[in-house]
Amino acid sequence: MMDVIQQLREQAKKLLEEKKVDLVIGFGQGTELARTTPVFIDSPEGVSKLTWGPFCANNLAKYLTDYKNAPGNIAVVVKGCDSRSINRLLDDNQISRDKVVIIGVPCSGQLEWQKVAAEIKPGASLKETADNGDSFSVKTDAGDYKFDKKDYLLHRCLVCENPNPVVSDLTIGKEQPVKNYEDRFAEVQALEQMSTEEKNAYWDKQFSRCLRCYACRNVCSVCTCQICVFDQMLPMWVSKRTNLSENTAFHLTRAFHVAGRCVDCGECDRVCPMDIPLRKLNQKIHKDLGDLFESPTPGTKPGLASPLGEFSPGDPEEFM
Amino acid sequence: MLKRLLEYVGFEPGRFQARWISGSEGAKFASTIKDMTEKIKSLGPNKKMRDDIL
Question: What is the pTM of this model?
Answer without folding.
Answer: 0.90
